Amino acid sequence: MAGETLTSAEYIHHHLTNLTFGKLPAHTRPGQDQAVWTMAHNSNEAGAMGFWAVHLDMMGWSLVLGLIFFALFRTVARNVTSGVPRGLQNFAEIIVDFVQDNVKNMFPYKNVMVAPMALTILVWVFLMNFMDLIAVDLLPWVAKLVGVHLMGAEPHQVFFKVVPSTDPNVTLGMAFDVFLLILFYSVREKGLGGFIGELSLHPFSSKNILLQIVFIPINLVLELVNLIAKPVSLGLRLFGNMYAGEMIFILIALMYSGGIVLGVFGGALQIVWGFFHILIISLQAFIFMVLTIVYMAQAYDTGESH
Amino acid sequence: MNFNLTFIGQMIAFAIFVWLTMRYVWAPITKAMAERQKQIADGLSAADRAARDLELAQEKASQELRTAKQQSAEIVEMANKRSNQIIDEAKHQARIEGERLIAAAKSEIEQERNRAKEALRAEVAALAIAGAEKILETSVDAKAHSDMLEKLAAKL
After folding, report:
1. A152 vs B109, which has greater pLDDT?
2. Interface-testing mutation among B8, B14, B39, with chain A (most A C-beta atoms within 10 A)
3. Residue among B2, B22, B24 nearest B14 (CA)
4. Catalytic residue among A241, A257, A282, A305
5. pLDDT tens across A187-217, in order?
6. From A83, which residue of chain B is nearest by alpha-carbon distance?
7. Contact B21/A63, CB-based, under 8 Å?
8. Phi/psi of residue A53, each to 5°?
9. Given this model, what pLDDT does residue B141 score?
10. Residue A78 designated active-site
């Protein structure tokens, strides 16, 4: 029984470890005298690499899905006609129209970048989330076959996660881009003084100068927390939802090893959770997009009164 | 689940994809959509205009028809009036002509009668003298009896 629990734990652990390429510090492996750039053989090595490592699986899927998104929409854009739209163009236009409506409703300013960014987020994040619906073991199994037979790796050293949005690096990376844009547009629209004023004169303000001076640091702390919370919550919300969803898929997949009855039950559960998850992945992609638009609008909003 | 370079990588990838989308996807698609929207709007307004034009044309046509009917009625009425007038005039002229003819005939008759009277008168005088000569078997001094004869002739 103990052995089985261990294999279950190993199974989960294996599923949660990235295919990592990075700079392994000296003396991590037996007989290793200096730091080398290499593939991590287990999660400890991946951890030891620290910041100087790349999750190849996450980065790879992220780029592949981004390219799929771009190729799809670029095909439409190249053959676009203002006459009667057909097939793929209809599909793309529905999405573009949806994004445009949302942006128009929430972002009443002139900016050529916000709407395309919203479109990118919606479709790309959706595709990244969608990887969750592909059977949890399928792609890792393929990767293991390729890794073992073509690259000569040890089976237990081939890690392969397929859902980029279950990696906080990926979600926070996008959120941080949004954060940089918030800072950029805030400063551009309100001026540096205006932006700092917005941070330090709300929510507490007083006509009494002395009291106002006391309030400024308090406001600054509150508003800075508020500001920092935007990208963090944006990135972590997506990560948390997707990570939890994937975890449930993994846990349900564990049932397959528990005999026929449990296996069939697990299969049914996978399907049910899969249906439910369709809602979640769409919703999370939509929320990421909406929040980005809202943050952009807040950055543009000059005459705001709390 | 380690924080590492993937973060930077995704930041760069995201920025690039946003830029690509903005430049090569969003602009052409939204432009085509806006164009189509304009075309549809133009088409609808053209249809509206055409319908309005049709309505106007129909109204104008019926108005023309009404005017034409009215005019034709007027013309018929005028023609009737004119024909009546012509008939009246003709009647009038005929009457005048008739009267004139009658008058002319009357005056001719009168003249004829006067002429006949004169001729008769002259003949009566001669006849009377001749008769008297026969009766008296003597010649009558025409001069001596001319006064009496003239009186006789005047009585005729």
Report:
1. B109
2. B14
3. B22
4. A241
5. 998 888 888 888 888 777 778 888 888 888 8
6. B36
7. no
8. -150, 155
9. 65
10. no
**What span, in angstroms and rounded, lies between the C-alpha atoms of A166 and B1?**
9
- Structural element, H or E, at residue A20: strand A20-24
Check: CB of residue A306 under 8 Å from CB of residue A203. yes
Those residues with Cβ within 8 angstroms of residue A115's Cβ, 6 or more apart along the chain or in another chain: A99, A100, A103, A107, B26, B30
pLDDT by residue for chain B (156 residues), tens only, comes to: 678 889 999 999 999 999 999 999 999 999 999 999 999 999 999 999 999 999 999 999 999 999 999 999 999 999 999 999 999 999 999 999 999 999 999 999 999 999 998 888 888 888 888 887 787 776 666 666 777 777 777 776
Q: Which residues have CB under 8 Å from B83's CB, separation 6+?
A: none
Find all residues with CB under 8 Å of B118, minimum gap 6, and list them: none
Active site residue A241: yes
Q: Domain locations in chain A?
A: 56-300
**Two tokens, residue B5:** 């370079």
Predicted ipTM of the assembly:
0.88
Count the neighbouring beta carbons within 10 Å of the beta carbon of residue A192: 10
The more confidently predicted of residues A251 and B145 is A251
User: A-B interface: how many C-beta pairs under 8 angstroms?
Assistant: 133
The alpha carbon dihedral of A272, A63, A19, A284 has a sign of negative
Give the minimum alpha-carbon distance from B47 to chain A in angstroms, rounded to a whole number: 18
> Mean per-residue pLDDT for A139-162?
80
Nearest chain A alpha carbon to B15:
A177
- Which H helix or E strand runs over A132? none
Rounded Cα gap, residues B5 and A61, in angstroms: 15
CA A262, CA A199: separation in Å to the nearest integer?
56
Q: Of A171, A172, A145, which is closest to residue A158 (Cα–Cα)? A: A145
Q: How far apart are CA A289 and CA B78, in angstroms?
A: 84
* pLDDT for residue A254: 85
The pLDDT of residue A73 is above 80: yes
